[in-house]
Design goal:
Radius of gyration: 14 Å
Protein name: Antibiotic biosynthesis monooxygenase
Low-confidence stretches: none
Structural class: alpha+beta
Number of strands: 4
Largest sheet: 4 strands, antiparallel
CATH class: Alpha Beta
Organism: Bosea caraganae
CATH topology: Alpha-Beta Plaits
Mean pLDDT: 90
CATH architecture: 2-Layer Sandwich
Strand order of the largest sheet: 2-3-1-4
Distance between the termini: 12 Å
InterPro entries: Dimeric_a/b-barrel
Shape: globular
């Protein structure tokens, strides 16, 4: 029986608009597969603005212990991809951890 997610781990990063397509390809190839192998679910969002593009990745976890096993330590620490320093405007300093209270989309 599948486990229901109780926690969402949210990462946000931004690129310059002209580098957004390249970063999207990069995060799809290098970042998302790591989450797909271990999280209960993952979503990637993109918001194009005038001069920059924001990316948001949300992964869903059964509990804090599962998330900690994935991060091999503190789940709120950001684990940057190798090319993030060159591709992102600035390196994100934090990860958000949210308890899922209501899920009307059937994720739980």
């Amino acid at each position: 029986m599948p486990t229901d997610p109780t926690i969402a781990r949210i990462w946000r990063g931004r690129t310059r608009r002209e580098g957004a397509d390249a970063y999207e390809r990069y995060i799809r190839a290098e970042g998302i597969p790591l989450l797909e192998r271990t999280a209960l679910g993952v979503q990637l969002f993109r918001e194009d603005r005038d001069d920059e593009t924001w990316f948001t990745a949300i992964s869903y976890w059964a509990d804090l212990e599962g998330m900690t096993a994935f991060t091999k330590g503190e789940p709120t620490e950001v684990h940057h991809l190798v090319n993030d320093p060159e591709m992102l405007i600035e390196l994100p300093e934090r990860i958000e951890i949210h308890r899922i209270l209501i899920d009307l989309q059937g994720l739980r």
